[in-house]
Structure formats: C-alpha cells, structure tokens
Design goal:
alpha+beta
C-alpha cells in the first residue's frame, strides 16, 4: 500500500515538472494614487492576475519548472471607480531569459504600456478565449503573455516565436473590434501601442531585429562565459542587423524595445572589451540608438 502511494506521488511530481506552466510572473499593483480606506480589492486584483498568468498552460510544450520565463508585471493605478469597478493606469512588463552556463538573467522585454483600463470586480471569473474578446483585462494579460513567450522562443530559435506572435495578433484584432479602447487601435499617436508592438514584430521589413534577438542570445550571450571575444564579435554582427532596420525605419517601436532591454547590458559588455574594439562599438551604438549616446560614452 505504501509503495503504491509512493509511486502515485512520484507520478504526480514528474507530471507537474513536465507540464509546468511557461511563465513565472511577479505581479504588483501600485495604488498610492487611489484615495480609498479599504484597499483589499487591489490585493485581490494582484492575486487574480498572478493566478491567471502563472497557472495557465499557454503552449503545448513540456516545460520544466526551472525553464519558466521570469517576468515582472507592475500596474500603477491612476484612478479607480468603486461603483463601476473601472481601473485606469499604466502597466510595466519586464521579462528575462537565463544565459547559458551562468547565473545571469538577461532582459528580453521591457515596455511601459500607458493606456491601461479595464473592469474588475472581486471574485469575478477571469474568462479568456484567444479566439474571441471577453474582457479588456484578460485580453491585455493574454496579449503580453504570448508576446513575451514569442520573444523568448525567438531568442532560442530563429523566428521561433512566430506561432505565439500570431496568437497575440489574434487577441489584438479581437480586442480592437470588441473593446474600442486605446492601445489596440491603428494610427494612434502612442508609438508603443499594442497594435504597433504586434504589427511591427510580424512585419517582414523588421525581420532583421528578430534575427538579431536570436544571434544576440544564442551566438552572443550564451557563449560569453566560454569565449567572450567570439561573443562580442557576434553581438556586433547583431547590431549591424539592427542597423538595417534603423536605416529604413529609425522610429520603429522595435528599435525602442530592443535598446530599452539591452542598452545597459551592451555598455557592460563593451566596457570589458579591448581598447581596439571600443570605438567601433561606440560609433555603431551611437548611430542606431541616439537617445543613449551619453550612456555609450561610458564604454570608453
């Protein structure tokens, strides 16, 4: 009897390891701007979002617990209507990826979504269907979950994230028609709208940046601990791919996202390069990421 119980326990543990969810997200709702005595609703919202993202099987892949994508999601509320359960604010999403052979995690995605609004009532079910619009909150969470999974897969396999970006596109299209809210619509002034995020990453003109994500991580960061010289050479080749996009669309959101995730890391990488490598890296980085020129001067 005891042996059967032990066997059953082992089967459950193995199954849990093999079919772990893909994302491990730390959720924080910042409510400092909301004048409310009882703020229990905000803690309930945190818990509901965390369970929605972390407990859902987003892909058909078998993922081990240590392979889950780490991310932080922070919602900064600017208003909350108690009567209508309507929330307005911004959302910061950051996701990371482990670097092979090290304990270091490299940032892949770092975006601030400035057009967040949704309805949420305590204990309401978080209904979600990627093929139809159910609510703006679950559409937001589903969209960004598939987006960060797509980027993670792009970093391990050339254009490997395409199926997940297509799922994010479907969610965006449904939300555009079903919600009518900002962030999903084309031709908005906000360059970092969800519409632009998904439209640009699936645009063939910007394919070199997706190729760069793969080369940067697999042929650069993942060999850095063993062969830093080859890693820096490959990362420079990635920056030349990024340069191709800069020359045709210098203001695309894809460039902004790449450097918001990588600018500090690139400084640290080339700070440790031989003196002969530094000027070339500084010149290229300063050309394709003008807003961070002062940062790249620290490489010298």
């Amino acid at each position: 009897m005891h042996k059967r119980l032990l066997l059953l326990t082992l089967i459950i543990l193995v199954s849990t390891t093999l079919f772990a969810q893909e994302i491990l997200c730390n959720v924080k709702v910042i409510d400092n701007q909301i004048q409310l005595t009882d703020k229990k609703i905000f803690r309930t919202l945190e818990q509901a979002i965390g369970e929605f993202i972390n407990n859902r099987q987003w892909t058909a892949e078998k993922v081990q617990s240590n392979e889950r994508i780490e991310c932080n999601l922070q919602i900064i509320l600017s208003s909350y209507d108690v009567k209508t359960n309507h929330f307005v604010g911004t959302m910061q999403i950051i996701s990371r990826r482990p670097v092979f052979g090290t304990s270091y995690n490299t940032t892949i995605f770092n975006v601030l979504d400035e057009n967040i609004e949704f309805d949420f009532a305590e204990f309401q079910p978080m209904n979600f269907n990627e093929n139809s619009y159910t609510s703006n909150l679950t559409s937001l969470l589903g969209f960004y979950s598939y987006y960060i999974i797509g980027l993670d897969y792009d970093s391990f396999g050339l254009l490997g994230g395409t199926p997940f970006f297509n799922k994010a596109l479907q969610i965006a299209n449904n939300a555009q028609q079903g919600s009518g809210l900002a962030g999903w619509q084309p031709f908005e002034r906000n360059l970092r709208s969800r519409y632009n995020l998904i439209d640009n990453i699936l645009n063939e003109r910007f394919r070199p940046i997706r190729e760069a994500y793969y080369k940067y991580h697999r042929e650069g960061m993942d060999i850095m601990s063993k062969n830093p010289e080859a890693a820096r050479k490959n990362i420079y080749a990635c920056l030349e791919l990024v340069q191709k996009v800069f020359k045709i669309a210098p203001n695309t959101v894809m460039l902004i996202l790449f450097f918001e995730a990588k600018s500090d890391e690139l400084v640290n990488i080339y700070k440790n390069a031989p003196a002969t490598e530094k000027p070339k890296a500084i010149d290229l980085l300063s050309e394709i990421n003008v807003s961070n020129i002062s940062k790249y001067e620290k490489i010298r």
